[in-house]
Automatic annotation (TrEMBL):
Keywords: DNA-binding, Transcription, Transcription regulation. Residues 1-58 form the HTH lysR-type domain. GO terms for molecular function: DNA binding; DNA-binding transcription factor activity. PROSITE patterns: HTH_LYSR. Pfam families: HTH_1, LysR_substrate. Belongs to the LysR transcriptional regulatory family. PANTHER family: HCA OPERON TRANSCRIPTIONAL ACTIVATOR HCAR (PTHR30346:SF0), TRANSCRIPTIONAL DUAL REGULATOR HCAR-RELATED (PTHR30346). It comes from Bifidobacterium jacchi. GO terms for cellular component: protein-DNA complex. This is LysR family transcriptional regulator. The keyword Disulfide bond does not apply. InterPro entries: LysR_HTH_N (IPR000847), LysR_subst-bd (IPR005119), WH-like_DNA-bd_sf (IPR036388), WH_DNA-bd_sf (IPR036390). It comes from the Bacteria.
Amino acid sequence: MTLLQLKYIVKIVECGSMNEASHELYVSQPALSSSVKELENELGIEIFTRSSQGIALTVDGAEFLTYARQVLDQASLLEERYKNAKPRKQLCSVSTQHYMFAVEAFVEMINSIKSDEYEFTIRETRTKDIINQVANMLSEIGIIYLSDFNKDVIGKMLREKHLEFHPLFRAPLHVFIARTNPLAGKKKVTMDDLKPFPFIQYEQGEEGSFFFAEEAVWPEYSPKQINVTDRATILNFIIGLNGYTVCTGIDNGDLNNEKIVTVPLDTDETMLVGWITNERAKLSKAAETYLDKLKSVVASHGYKLIAR
């Protein structure tokens, strides 16, 4: 079945005769009749009844005509969307763990786009959701980290979903704490130092596990623990409740440096931060621009990029 055959059927019905339709379609009547017969044989139905008085739609033909018109309408929408001489709207979707540098790069990407129309999406979300969104092509790029603890589980999941991990930089661990916290002046802090303070972590849902945690390390036992879902809340809790969270150490203007500081964590653990892509998909121009801006932002914060 072809779109051309569907157009033939609709035109025949509009004209009321095979002969008139053949003239309007610039197709010989035998060729038109043959095309309709091939379609009927393929579908196993009779679309038209033929008599000395002309042709008429059968019951099956009337039902088929309804579907044919719907298909042709959809095809027309596709042609209008992709054959329009007007430059197409730029699209890009990114899913990321709660990293301020990822948002900073997204802003720079949008500011650099020379387009009258665009539609961009950034999702700060759970680790497993990021992986699934890239696997299902809801997002072109996902930003996550690997550590010695989670790399086997996350790596297996990425392979099963045909995703590729591209390392961006390796970050020594830090903590965000309030500037009023008594630990704020220390050159390094230990997990023991942090025991008296509430530990704040990003919630990973009912199916969450330590392997999907955004925090590369956590206290063995914390009498005070708060689970949150968004970055603004975690920053407010650090200030308002004198809590802490484990992070890469990259900050920017969103951090509110007058009230929050970043302090190195005394540990040998690191975070290998990178982006994931679907090996079956080709990145859009906007997505490639985003990656360039992402690398630039990370480098501007003093982190060494991993060469590929």
